[in-house]
C-alpha cells in the first residue's frame, strides 16, 4: 500500500515524512520554521511560509522517487477551524486564517488531505502505534512549552463540537491559581507548562546555569536536568507540575473512564521526578475502583508521534476521521 | 411499535413505566423502596426486594392490557458491573452484586434487557428527548443528594473502559477541598451535593426552620427555599454550589468540546440563585472561543428523564447501546 505524506507544522520546525501503512517513518526531513523577526526572513508573510513548506514536501517526495501517495495527513498548531483547517497557529504569526487544507488539496489533487491539531495527532499516533495501542479509551498528553492532548474513547477519536476536544491543558487544577494564556485561571497549562515552571522556579531563587540559552523549552530542559542533579527548587518545580498533571488526569478519568493516559513532550523526560508526584496526586484524587485502574505511562513514539498520528488520519479513518463534521 | 418497559431503581423509590417510541410515558407506577431498617420490612433481603420490583412491573404490564414489549430498559444506582449489570447500589444495601440483568432476562425471555447507571439514563433521556435534543455533544448532570452525569459525544453515549464514563461529580474542583465519599478530596460532589451544602450552611449558622423533616434531600430543598427568601447563608451555599459546578463544566468542555450541559436534580430548581454564580464561574474559567459556546441549561424532562433514557437504551441502541462491551 502507498505511503502517506505526513506533515508536522510547529513554531520551531516544519517536519515531513513518508509514513508506511504499518506506521514506520520511511523518509524524514525538516526545516526550521522561518521566523518573521529574524534578519534573513525577508519580510516573511503567509505566502513565503507556504513556499517554504511546499518546497520541503516537494523535495521529500522527489528524493523518495515520487511514489504514489495514499493521502496527506497534517498536524498543525492551533487554533484552526476544523475540518476545513483554516489555521492560525499561536506560534506562527505569519498564518492567520490560512487556508491550509485548501492549498494542500490544490497541490495534491485527488488525494485525501486531513488536518488536525498537532497535540491531537500526537495522541492519535500514540493510540495507533504507541503507548495506547490495543486500548479503546486513551488520553494522550504533550507537556512542553504548552500542555495539549487528544482523546480516544470507544476506540474512536473524539472531536467534540468543533474539533477542539482533548484540551487537557485547560482542565482547572487550582481555581485560584495562576492566570493562563487562555484568559482563564488555574488551568493545568498555567501551572505545568515549561515556561510557567521556569518562572515559578526563578521566583523561588533558581538560576539558569547556562544563561546563554534561549528562554522556553531550553530553560525547561535545564530545570529538569537540575532536578535530576538534586537541586531543591528544581525538584520542587517538577513536583508542582507532577501534582497538577495527576489532578487533571484524575478529573479526566472520572469523566471519561480511561484505560491509559500517555504523557509525552519535553517535560515527561524528567522521569520519576515528574511521574512519582504525579502518581501520588492521582492516587489521592482517584479512589474509585474504575478510576484507579487507569495506567499512566510515558508516551512511546517520541518526536515522530505527531507524524505517525497525521498518517493515521488517512490510514485509519474509521477510527480517527469520523463523525458528521469530518469531510 | 411496541413500548419499552422502563424501570428506575433508586434508594427512595422503584419506578416503572411503559414508554412509547416517541418518548412519551404512557403508563407509570411506583412504590417506595423497601427499607431494611424499617419495622415493616420483615428482614428484607435481596430476594425480597426483587419480589417487590417484580410485582411492580407485573402489575404495570397487566394493568396496561399486557401489550407486546420492545424490550426492558433500566436505570439503577451504581456501582454495577457493566453491561452484565450485577448491581450494588450505594443506597440499597440489600443488593450487593445482585444479578439484575440475568433476573430480568429470565423474567422477560426473548426481549433485550439493557441496564445502565441511573444518572447516565437521565443524561440519555435529556439527549434523546430533552434539553440536549438535536446536539451531538452533551453533558447531562444530576445535582441532588449526589452529583452524577452522563456524556454523549459525537452523537453517541460514551461508556468508557467499564461503563463508568460521565462521573462529573468526581471532577476535582478544589484540590485542597472537603473529603469526598469516594475517598478523594475536593470533588464537585463533595462541595455541591445537597447534604454537603446543608452541612456547610449549618457550620455557618443556618438552621432548618422545620426540624421535623428528614435529613438529606428535604433539608437541601429547604436550604434552596431559604435562599429564594433571601437568607444570606442559604444564598451563599447556592453560590458555593454554583461556582463548583461552573468550574467542573469548564474543565469538562475543555476536555470534551460540548454543545450543551443540561443540569437537573433537586438543586437545579434553585434557578438563578444557582445558575447565576455558575455562569459567572464558568465565564471566568472558560475563555477560549470554543469553550464559551457551550450552552448551560436546566434539564427539560424532570422526574421522568431516567425512565425516558432507560427506554432509549432499547429504542435508540445505535446511539446509546454501542461499543465492544455492550452485548
From TrEMBL, chains A, B:
What SUPFAM superfamilies does the database record attribute to this sequence? Actin-like ATPase domain
Q: What top-level branch of life does the organism fall under?
A: Bacteria
Pfam families tied to this protein: ROK
Record-linked PROSITE patterns: ROK (PS01125)
Signal sequence: where?
none
Q: Which PANTHER family match?
A: N-ACETYLMANNOSAMINE KINASE, ROK (REPRESSOR, ORF, KINASE) FAMILY
Family to which the UniProt record says this protein belongs: Belongs to the ROK (NagC/XylR) family.
Record protein name field: ROK family protein
Tell me the organism.
Answer: Actinomadura soli
Amino acid at each position: 500500500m502507498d505511503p502517506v505524506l505526513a506533515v508536522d507544522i510547529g513554531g520551531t520546525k516544519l517536519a515531513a515524512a513518508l509514513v508506511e501503512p504499518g506506521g514506520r517513518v520511511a523518509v524524514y526531513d525538516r526545516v526550521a520554521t522561518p521566523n518573521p523577526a529574524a534578519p534573513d526572513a525577508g519580510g516573511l508573510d503567509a505566502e513565503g511560509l507556504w513556499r517554504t513548506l511546499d518546497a520541503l514536501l516537494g523535495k521529500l517526495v522527489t528524493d523518495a522517487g515520487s511514489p504514489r501517495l495514499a493521502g496527506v495527513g497534517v498536524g498543525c498548531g492551533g487554533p484552526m477551524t476544523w475540518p476545513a483547517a483554516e489555521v492560525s497557529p499561536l506560534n506562527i504569526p505569519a498564518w492567520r486564517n490560512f487556508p491550509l487544507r485548501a492549498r494542500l488539496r490544490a497541490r495534491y489533487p485527488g488525494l485525501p488531505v486531513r488536518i488536525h491539531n498537532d497535540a491531537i495527532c500526537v495522541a492519535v499516533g500514540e493510540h495507533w502505534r504507541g503507548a495506547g495501542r490495543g486500548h479503546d479509551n486513551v488520553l494522550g498528553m504533550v507537556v512542553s512549552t504548552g500542555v495539549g492532548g487528544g482523546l480516544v474513547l470507544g476506540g474512536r477519536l473524539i472531536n467534540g463540537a468543533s474539533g477542539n476536544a482533548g484540551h487537557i491543558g485547560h482542565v482547572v487544577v487550582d481555581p485560584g491559581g495562576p492566570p493562563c494564556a487562555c484568559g482563564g485561571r488555574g488551568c493545568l497549562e498555567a501551572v505545568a507548562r515549561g515556561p510557567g515552571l521556569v518562572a515559578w522556579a526563578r521566583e523561588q531563587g533558581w538560576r539558569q546555569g547556562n544563561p546563554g540559552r534561549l528562554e522556553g523549552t531550553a530553560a525547561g530542559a535545564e530545570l529538569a536536568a537540575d532536578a535530576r542533579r538534586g537541586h531543591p527548587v528544581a525538584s520542587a518545580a517538577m513536583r508542582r507540575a507532577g501534582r497538577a498533571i495527576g489532578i487533571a488526569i484524575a478529573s479526566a478519568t472520572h469523566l471519561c473512564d480511561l484505560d491509559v493516559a500517555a504523557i509525552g513532550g519535553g517535560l515527561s523526560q524528567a522521569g520519576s521526578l515528574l511521574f512519582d508526584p504525579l502518581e501520588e496526586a492521582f492516587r489521592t484524587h482517584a479512589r474509585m475502583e474504575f478510576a484507579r485502574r487507569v495506567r499512566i505511562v510515558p508516551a512511546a513514539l517520541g518526536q515522530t508521534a505527531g507524524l505517525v498520528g497525521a498518517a493515521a488520519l488517512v490510514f485509519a479513518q474509521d477510527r480517527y476521521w469520523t463523525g458528521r463534521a469530518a469531510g
